[in-house]
Amino acid sequence: MPLVTLADLFFRFNAIGLLLALMLFNWPRLNQAERSLSAALALCLSLFLLLTQPLPEWRFNPLRNLFLAGTELLPLMLCASAWYLINQRVPNWLNKPSGRWLLGGSLLANSSVFLLYGSDTHWHTVMHLLSALAMCATLYYCLANFNDDLVNHRRHLRLILATFALLHCLLLVGFELSASLIRRDPLFLLANAVLVFCLLLLMTCLSRASRVPRQESAQADTQPVPVKWQSTYQALNTLLEQGIYREPELTIGTLAEHLAIPPHQLRVLINQQLGFNNFSQFVNQHRLAYAAEQLRDVAKARTAILSIAFEAGFNSIGPFNRAFKQVYQLTPGEYRKQALNQPQISEKTL
Questions:
Q1: What is the pTM of this model?
Q2: Fewer beta carbons within 10 Å, N or C terminal of the chain?
Q3: Which of 175, 76, 176, 68 lies closest to 135 in space, CA to CA?
Q4: Which regions form coiled coils (predicted)?
Q5: Residue 250 zone, left/alpha/beta (φ > 0; ψ -120 to 50; rest)
């Protein structure tokens, strides 16, 4: 057996072992949805590794259709993982029994087609199209608003999932759309196996390191700001009192420049000490408080709500209205009307 093939099998089966260890290591701290998603992702990735291994006598065996069925679902599992990573919740339609039945029936029907007919169907081509769409969605979920994310562990996972998505796109091109010489090239297969192994090894290291920050963040609300952050924290409060949050184009990078610290240190301060997961969430809290103060001001009763939104730092009225109602449970117009009518109501009562 060639050395390249031996190396490929070494990295490939070690990657499967890492997958199992990674899932068992994190299993106790996962909720039910996360356990289901991680198990499905690990199963599909393992079947993908078995399907793309370099030995033809192993690849073309009675279980090939099973490997193929799992491989075709891998892009959808990656997309679902990216969506859950960003939103930290199950889609609303999956909370309904009809939604769960629909999902289960779709997965069963898709897997049955590949188990019975393999790749000799038009459905295989349709799945390639769905895979491409799922990979585009995965890249969007992972990379959109990446700089807004303050949780370092989640930022690393977003990059890993984006890399997996790009890897799968390359494999789709290599195995399905390119010449047969490329898809059977041992070096091409070895490179993919090594990359998957390295990504899983990185995920294992991140999983071990993420346990400490989670414990610290759980106690962040009851502990004062550490001494090492005091000067930066005071400088940050000074900038906030000066109204820096009202700058429409304010980013974590520009705020870090004002504080003369690296952006990653500012992310740690805002996330672990102040309890915010997103920079926009942190900035919007101050913008909304400022806007609410302006709406309560009798002297600005005739000022347009759009002007107040722009003055607070919002670029348009739509995001302002949605963010305001989410926090105050009222639209800006309803909030202003209620706030300005309260003094009159109290005077009539007296």
A1: 0.78
A2: C
A3: 76
A4: none
A5: beta
